[in-house]
Amino acid sequence: MKITKERAMPAVVLGVICLAVALVIAVVNLFTAPEIERAKKEAISESLRIVMPNGLFGESMPLDGMPETVTGIYKDENGGGHVVTLSTTKGYTGKPIALTVGVDNDGKITGAVITATEETKDTDKVADLVAGFKDKDAAGVDGTALISGATYSSRAVKNAVHDALVALGYAKADTENAPATDNGGVPTLSRDELYARALAMVEGATALTRVSVEGLPATAKAVYRDEASGAYVLYLVTRTDWVPTETEGLVLVSKNGTIEKVDMINWVVGHGVDYTPEYIQSFIGKNKETVGHVELVAEATRTADNFATAVDGTLEVLFPVPTYRYVGLTALTLVVILAAVGIVLKKRRGF
Amino acid sequence: MKKMKNKKLGILLSGIIAENPVLILVLGTCPTLATTTSLVSALSMGVAAMLVLICSNAVISLLRKVIPDTVRIPCYIVVIAGFVTAVQLLLQACLPDIYDMLGVYLALIVVNCIILGRAEMFARKNPVLDSVLDGLGMGLGFLVALLLMALIREVLGAGAFFGTPIPFMEKVKIPILVQAPGGYLVFGLMIALMNKLTEKKGGVKKKHFRCEGCPSAAACLGECGTEKKEDAQ
């Protein structure tokens, strides 16, 4: 095919226009790029200056190997230290608490603040606790007392601030002294004591594996599994609004979802009513379909019901309805609907 | 001279009222509904679109004798996209809050029907000054329509004016007006009102849109059947 002027001209004109526009954009970019970069740093810096007022910050440093609560580490380009942003899912409601913590070059906290929370209890007290970390070092943070009645939230934020110091190398990741759960659970037992008690529930078991399951309710603080028998031991912590302490219990569940034992570690006694043997016995032999019918404790019905609900919720996640049942039910429903529509159409239109 | 001045003024004013791109021609509906939940975002979008419209009309008019017919649409889009990109970079550098507020709708100005439509219908057939005036008129019409709609939605829907809460509106505001259904409702009512106000003043109506007013006339050669249907009516 001969390339004539008529054939080539449109492509040439389009090409020239594209080049001209690209040149214009390049020139505009040349002038605006430094300003855009400065504006981005300013936006990041503004959110971080609440804990380090004179800081200038760029992008976050890499987070490889950092504690899981750390969401960003920003170095102050003015040499003031670092700011760490954190997010913990270990609060009372199970929803994330976002924190920003500033740390100077000596490992002392320049400021700490909660930036987002969906906690529903004692939020002011927890915010004050966080603000109180200012000028403390790792030892000072670890020695801070938890807030009574807001132990989940205060433990969660305290651990997060500790993680900030670990991330910057001013504290060690202290697993030996960690509470029985890493979920901000009530520290009635240490981790080792809880494990030993869980192991004792499973006859013949020599070891249990701590498993991580997605979608567990916030009340399920730990799930252990005996690989040999397939049984689970659930560590559940629940609370009722009008008493200040929590209910903790271990529940042994067989591999097919039947409850075999319940060990009540700590029963809330704020109103002086203890659990009954009948309550514990009523769990035995139940599964996720029937656990809602346990015999509640008179004058402690809400506490008893909360614990039973926690068991139910955990079993729902551990033993979900098989997919084939959903598919089968859906297909059956569709067939019935289509058949009904077909019958109606046939009658009306002689289809 | 006076006749020429009147003609220029006519070009400018037609885009604001008689051929308002949003309320009469019903173009650019997407950014209209999306950015009119607040007066600030409406003002920002209106000004940005107006700037792009003026600049693209000017450049396309300048190049109207150079651009071959076969590649005119791709050329127009490249020019428009270039100006939109420049506006984006300038906003990101100088007014980052406005840039964040407009979000994806800033880039969508490239495919705004008003801009491509005016390039095709006016700029490629008219001198540079007339094209600039047309761009200015259409841009102002777009801006006025956005502001009117945003005024209704923000004051009555959010109980605020330019972001400042209005004390007595807090209890009587109608939140659905800042949602999509409310936006469509306000839009429809404004079009109806505009039609009513312009029906006796020579406003452009659908029945006058024949082949000569259609951007696709050259492509379909009048075979879409619109003229035959209107003739039958």
Verbal overview:
The complex is a heterodimer of chains A (351) and B (233). Chain A has 351 residues and is of the alpha+beta class. Helix content of chain A is 39%, strand content 18%. Chain A contains 8 helices and 9 strands. Chain A has a 5-stranded antiparallel β-sheet. Chain A has a 4-stranded antiparallel β-sheet with strand order 1-2-3-4. The relative contact order of chain A is 0.06. The model of chain A is unreliable at 175-187 (pLDDT under 50). In chain B, 64% of the residues lie in helices and 2% in strands. Chain B has 11 helices and 2 strands; from the N terminus they run ααααααααββααα. In chain B, β1 (160-161) and β2 form a beta hairpin. The termini of chain B are far apart. The A-B interface holds A 9-11, 13-14, 17-18, 21-22, 24-25, 28-29, 31-33, 35-36, 39, 43 and B 63, 66-68, 70-71, 74-75, 78-79, 81-82, 85-86, 89-90, 92-94, 96.
